[in-house]
């Protein structure tokens, strides 16, 4: 979902990746001026929200205020709720929602023409934060962020699990959604079969032997979009092989030629080879997309699938009765090793040419209230980037499981790592080739490092 974003906005050459592999939704693109009546806030929520203007802004908010948000695997329930609450707190503000699964593509001409919305959720295809900064499309929030407080009076910077990305030392977007790649399985199936959740790679291979013997493919991935297996399997394997130091991934993403010589990369790739040579990878993987692989997983044709936390929400209509999603961030650590959670964030930003920056900043302060963490987890099926215990919330169990991993001292939490488009594409292509045995790990490294070398010229 939010893991592979690329830009045709700044007019950079794009990979043809269909990121919204995680953007499946039945909701059409929409532009509305008022939240639907069915999403009206509860009395309690409205009462809580009514205090917002005092904390969020010194003056009453008026005029037009437009919000652009992508509707993908996380759905739009949270957006409808929070916008309704913000509207109730600011009745003189005319809010326009520009939203839908294709909204980024639809809004691109307006960004290019210098007529963007005021507030933007950077997620899904056609939006890439680094390119938007390079193209001068986003407001510089560096000074504002230093002392910015949410509507409860809490300093926003103190609440975040991951701090905003910096571009030449400046801040333009603030992460709200915290996603983790990982491995899903069905707890109910495993209980029925007497299989245990794997604690490490040796355990995973042992469980996979039993799974294969039972006539089920142990592992399926999305061959058309190999960033799933890279994000959930390969990158954690590389971090584990590098003594739990994720700086190697960052050096790789920065196109440091020396990083690509690190033997930890080969060790990580060897985990894929071991799986492949044991026949644990479903042969259908190489040619199928995200929903096809997820459907086979839900049908128990396959026991494990690498994916992001949006998976259960994205496939909600197809989940069989009794299916109980289990989630572990990584299965590639050696015995006794730490779990590695390869995370990504989706961020909020304000357009540099926003017409109502006061409302945009007030909304930023509104959404970063602690109460939104539990609401986001409950309504979207993913943790927010706001620190806090969601164990008592109505969030799905797999989200609570993920949150526990992300807050545990026994987990290595890898901050969002973003590769150059050409390098990322080379890694994806090479990984697919490795899974079917047409190249070796050494050839994988050569393929990708050759592209890195071109980037450095």
Looking at CATH, the homologous superfamily of the largest domain is: Periplasmic binding protein-like II
Total number of strands: 10
CATH fold category name of the largest domain: D-Maltodextrin-Binding Protein, domain 2
Number of helices: 19
Taking all residues together, what is the mean pLDDT?
87
Determine the fraction of residues in helical runs and give it as a percent range: 40-55%
CATH architecture of the largest domain: 3-Layer(aba) Sandwich
Number of domains: 2
CA gyration radius, whole angstroms: 22 Å
Query: What is the chain-wise order of helices and strands?
Result: EHHEHEHEHHHEHHEHHHHEHEEHHHEHH
Low-confidence stretches: 1-21, 23-57
The major beta sheet can be summarized as: 10 strands, mixed
Binned strand content:
5-15%
The helix/strand class is alpha/beta
Shape category: globular
Report how far apart the termini are: 32 Å
CATH class of the largest domain: Alpha Beta
Family: Belongs to the bacterial solute-binding protein 1 family.
Protein name: ABC transporter substrate-binding protein
InterPro entries: Bact_solute-bd_prot1, SBP, SBP_1_CS
Keywords: Cell membrane, Lipoprotein, Membrane, Palmitate, Signal, Transport
